[in-house]
Amino acid sequence: MQIHCKYAGVKGFINLYEYALRYSYMITDKAKFKAKVLSFRAKHGLEATLDAFPVKRSTLFLWKKKLTDNQGKLEALNDKSKSPHRKRQRITSKRIEQFIVAQRTEHPGLGKDKLKPLLNDYCLKENIISVSESTIGRVIGDLKEKGLILSNAKVYLSGKTGRLIVRKPSKKRKKIRRKNYQPIKAGDLLQIDTIEKFINGVRRYIITAIDLKSDFAFAYGYSTASSLNAKDFFEKLTNIAPFEIARIQTDNGSEFEKYFREHLAQEKIIHFHNYPKCPKMNAYIERFNRTIQEEFINWQRELLFSSLERFNRKLIDWLLWYNTKRPHWSLGLKSPLQYLVDKLTPEKSNMLWT
């Protein structure tokens, strides 16, 4: 039986649908309000618009001009950055910097709170204005970047060569947060987590993933929670998922670093991180973790620790049932696969045979 879409053959429908998906999350609520006002003005006239909305005549013409100059693109109505073009720069006396360098060179562990009274005495003698404790901290940071004072470093003994190796502290990487982003279609956002099981001195790890729109889920068991295994899991997930993955969300576990992070960067997939100690941000995957443990893992504990290979084979069978037959309340008592079939785009639905 061939499945037909009622929009098949409608000229321009696919382009309009893709355009709406692309720009729906790039336009702010304020820009949508401005577009609504301009649409009201085009339909009902200027005087009716001024009575209906708390905007000025000049503001309406300014919005209209922005829209016209950008060929009708609604992103032109987004608010521009209001930060100043020229920002204030901190100016610190060279003598104060030299004093801090001298003190930190002689006493490397001296902090800004201890430097403050010493600097006050020095400034009083030199008849110059002292600076605050927070400014001293920022000056120390600047001097470290310039290499004028030493940074804290850990020293350890190499077991292979017997030499002392200085390990410099790595710079903190800025992590992307999900904030208010909401997925539009399947594959836009998946949450990934790790379940840890421990019995008789043996640990096992099951990495899990779920799509927020379709509830399509995947899981696989490993003996260690390494970033290499997490990368292997994501490659398996990519191969079996019936959609393209655009974004993922994880906690700050070490298994989601290094090889896993490098693989995501190579595939150009956005990686959202939760805030520390905030599992409620991963509510979907936490709920799936409970489901998979209650319905499968807890009944296969012996197999999980005795034969991980056989456990994974049974796990795949359970996932096939979960994704193709098990009804989900969140999907209107449909299975994830049935939900995906019902949501297929017109172009794909014309090529699908069941």
| Number of H- or I-type helical stretches | 14
Could you state the oligomeric state of the chains shown? single chain
Q: How many extended strands?
A: 7
Q: How are strands sequenced across the largest beta sheet?
A: 5-4-3-6-7
Report on this model:
The structure is a single chain. This protein has 354 residues and is of the alpha/beta class. It folds into 3 domains: 28-77; 94-149; 190-349, Nucleotidyltransferase, domain 5. Helices cover 45% and strands 12% of the residues. It is built from 14 helices and 7 strands. The strands form 2 sheets. It has a 5-stranded mixed β-sheet with strand order 5-4-3-6-7, with helices on both faces. Strands 1-2 form a two-stranded antiparallel ribbon. A hairpin with a 2-residue loop joins strand 3 and strand 4 (202-211). The radius of gyration is 29 Å and the shape is flat. It starts with 12 loop residues before the first helix and ends in a 5-residue tail after the last helix. It holds the Pfam family rve_3. InterPro entries: Integrase_cat-core (IPR001584), RNaseH-like_sf (IPR012337), RNaseH_sf (IPR036397). Residues 179-344 form the Integrase catalytic domain.
List keywords for this structure.
single chain, 354 residues, alpha/beta, Nucleotidyltransferase, domain 5, 3 domains, disordered C terminus, RNaseH-like_sf, Integrase_cat-core, Integrase
